[in-house]
Specification:
With about 300 residues, this protein is α+β, with helices and mostly antiparallel strands. It has two domains: about 5-135, Beta Barrel (Lipocalin); about 200-305, 3 Solenoid (Pectate Lyase C-like), CATH 2.160.20.80. It contains five helices and nine strands; from the N terminus they run H-H-E-H-E-E-E-E-E-E-E-E-H-H. The protein has helices spanning about 5-15, 25-30, 40-45, 155-165, 190-200, and strands at about 35, 50-55, 55-65, 70-75, 80-85, 90-95, 105-110, 115-120, 125-135. An eight-stranded antiparallel barrel has the order 2-3-4-5-6-7-8-9. The protein is elongated and about 65 Å long.
Length: about 300
Amino acid sequence: MNRHLSKLLCTLVFLILTGCAASTVNNAVKQGATVLDAQEVFNLVSENNLHLVSSDFDSHVFFSQDGSLSAKSIFDNNLDYGKWDIKSNGELCIKYNVWYYGDTICYSAYKDDKQNQYLFFTNNGSLAYSVTASSGNSQRIKIKTKKDKKSTFVRSSLSKEQSSNSPPPTPATSTAAVAPVGANSGPGASQEEIKHTVKSMAQNCPDCNFEEADLRNANLIGANLKGANLTGADLSRANLRRANLEGANLAGAVLLSTNLPGANLKDANLSGADLTGSNLIQADFTDADLDGTILDNTLQEGTKGLQ
């Protein structure tokens, strides 16, 4: 079978598989698809094979727990290798060595129970792949492992936790409940490792959940935390110079002696937050919720939105 015919057949298969599936994330949710969090994505992919199908892509990918991946194209039996990781918001990030020009592309994963499959969507909300999973390296793809390195994403911590916990992890096809992402206090990851990972992620994590996180003394200069949930978080003595906190929820947060010069806090919820002794020079609090906010001994030269 020539390559052109293979691609044509793959396109037909994709159209059949997605004929009743939503082509956008909004439509998928309306049809009952549910988003996977980071722990669920890890359970789905780690040490398992995923069959990824789109109109121009049909490949099996095996995701090794060490963060490497091995892929085989059904089009022409070509192999490629690469690496994978998971963001704190649950996005699966894939980087092939050759395919897609070696770019890192991240996908949000949804479970479609009606079609008994998973759906991967790009950042713009369009359907990238219809996905089916099987346990282990079911396609016997040649594997190339890599030496694991410290990651700013969460795969490394989840891998350590899974390796050290007993009983064995739930198979990818199981619908059993999974532990929340934040539950990394077991023997697999130390508290210091977790704190380091959280602080690293906070450097660029819009809309992420850092509720009650320990971000004391964190270096977050220019960080993008737009829309992030920082309810009750401790940001004391953190450096948030020129950070983007627009629309962030900082209700009840502790920001003692925090450095916030030039920070964007437009539309942020700072109700009940304690900013005692903080540097707020030229920070923008336009339309921020300041109900009960403590601003004792703060530097306020050039600020906007404070009376």
